[in-house]
Predict the 3D structure of the following.
Amino acid sequence: MAIIIDGNALSKKIKDNLRVETDALFDKTNKRPCLAVVLVGENPASHIYVASKEKACHHSGILSKSYKVENMKETELEELILKLNQDPEINGILVQLPLPEGLNEEKIIDLIDPIKDVDGFHPYNTGKLWINLKPYFFPCTPWGIYELIKEYKIDLSGKEVVVLGRSNIVGKPIAGILLQKFPYADATVTVCHSRTKNLEEHLKRADVIVAAIGKPEFVKEEWVKQGAVIIDVGINRVADETSPKGYRVTGDVDFQTVEKKASYITPVPGGVGAMTIAVLLQNTVKAFKIQNGMKD
Ligand code: GUN
């Protein structure tokens, strides 16, 4: 039976510590960190995520300013980003993804001032991550995974990590982080995706699997090596008539069976997902400190 990695517990610890830190910053500066959250469109999942981000900001003594609009032209969104870049009251800017069709995500992210890019998606921060220099911010979900690995003292040095999925939000940046000569990282990393041949063979030799493909219960027990570490990034809704809501949330890993073989496993919910927001808040406090000359 695997050790269940408790993302809720670490997330709570980080958020509680940030509350203490932001109260101390307020005593010192009479200001609180402030996150601008931009949400365009009606994507229900995005609305739920944004509501949780706002609630978490409040918990940790961080101000949040929301810009929620049903529809926006690209030029209007560009103007909003440029305005937020200039606004000294705003420390972090988060544009919830995916953006509706017709809005060019890459172009919008490029416009965010890297020093306010608390999602860590700007090419400046992404580039710094890959060339081993410190970016201002690491992307929230991958850094949350790294925080969990450190918390449980799982040393990945020289280990075979197989990442499933090559998204800009999770797959690519987690590969970059685990490749670096950071404590507990320093791994041999393979990134697999929809065109990968012999996927099962890659998975079977993995010491660590990071599953981030958005396919419910995709990773099966027979593909997992005895004692492997399983990091499940998936958040999938599947129909379930036995649940009052008519659905349940499940990861990219078949938890029931894989848990029996793994040494460590993250549950869904309560694993990686809980960490994303905690890191976003950490990044926002860091942004405040950089912008107020308290950190370089
Ligand atoms: N959509 C899914 N994950 C994320 C995230 O970490 N940040 C933003 N901005 N949008 C997302």
About this structure: The two ends are 44 Å apart (CA to CA). The longest strand covers residues 34-40. The CA atoms of residues 200 and 223 lie 6 Å apart.
